[in-house]
C-alpha cells in the first residue's frame, strides 16, 4: 500500500504544475473509480439475444485485462464495479433474480481474485422489492459488496417511490452507499438522438428530485447516494429545482437537501460542467468516475486528462481522486 503522505505530495505537484502528475504507467495508482462498469460475458449475451442496447450504445466487450489497462492509463488504484442500464429486470421477477445472482457472484469473484484492485456495487432487482431485499442480504453478508447500484428509473418507476421504502429502510440500517445510474426515459426517444446523449442526464435529475421530494434524504440519513455524471442537470439547474424539493417552499432548504447527494465526474470533467458542479457542491461530495467501458478507453482518458488540467489545489484534487471515496468506503483508505 502506497503511503498517504506520498500520494498527497504527488497530488500537490500536479496542482502546482497544472498537469496531472498521476498520468501514465509510471505514476502511483491513486484514484478510486466509483463509476467503473463490469459486463460479464453471459450478461452481454443475454442482452444481445434480446436486441437490447445500453441507451443506444452497443453492449461493450469487457475483460479484466481491459479494465487493468484503463486503470494503468488513468492511475486508478481501485475500480468499484457496477452493472449499467438496463440492469437485470426486463419484466420477469424470477429471471431478474437469477441474473442478479449470477452477475453479483461474477463481480465478487473478480474482486476476490484481484485483492484491493476491485470492489463492486451489488445489482438488485427493482421494481421487485422482495427480490431486492433477498439479493441485498446475500450480496452484503456473503459477497461483501461495497454498496448497491440502482437505476434511476425502471419502466417509469423512479427512485423515491413509496413502494421502495422497505428496501431503503434496510439500506439505511446497513449504512449503505447507493450508486444511482441512469436508465432510459419512460418515453420514446427523439429520432436521431440516442438516449445516452441527453435522456440519461434528465433521468438522473428526475430521480434526484423525486428522492429529495420524498424526504428520503432525511428519513434515511445513513444512505449515501452517488449520482452519475455529475448529477445530470442537477447542479446547473439547482436554483430552479430547489423550491420544488424544499420542505417549506423556499430556496435555501431545498438547496441544502440537494447538497446531501454525492456526484461523480464520469463524462462530466469538462471545463463547462466542472464549474457548475464545483459552484454547487463541495469536493467532499465529489468522486472520480471513468465510465469505462461504455466510455471507450480514448474517451475516458480524454475526460480524465481534462480533470487533471482543471485548476484545483492539492486538497481539492486529492478529495476528488480519492479522499471522498475513502470516507464512503473506509476499507480503501491509504495507510
Could you describe the 3D structure shown?
The structure is a single chain. The protein contains 13 helices and 10 strands. It is α/β, with parallel strands linked by helices. The longest helix is centred in the first third of the chain and has 21 residues, at 93-113. Helices cover 45% and strands 13% of the residues. It has helices spanning 4-17, 41-49, 64-73, 93-113, 129-141, 165-173, 199-214, 216-219, 234-245, 251-258, 273-280, 297-309, 314-328, and strands at residues 31-37, 76-82, 118-123, 147-151, 153-154, 157-158, 177-181, 224-227, 262-264, 286-287. The protein has one domain (4-332): Metal-dependent hydrolases (TIM Barrel), CATH 3.20.20. The protein has an 8-stranded parallel β-sheet. Strands 5-6 form a two-stranded antiparallel sheet. The model has no long low-confidence stretch (mean pLDDT 93).
Summarize the model shown:
The protein has 335 residues and is an alpha/beta fold.
Shape: globular
Please write the string of helix (H) and strand (E) elements. HEHHEHEHEEEHEHHEHHEHEHH
Helix content: 40-55%
- Proportion in β-strands: 5-15%
Mean pLDDT: 93
Structural class: alpha/beta
Head-to-tail CA distance between termini:
7 Å
Counted beta strands: 10
User: Can you tell me the CATH class?
Assistant: Alpha Beta
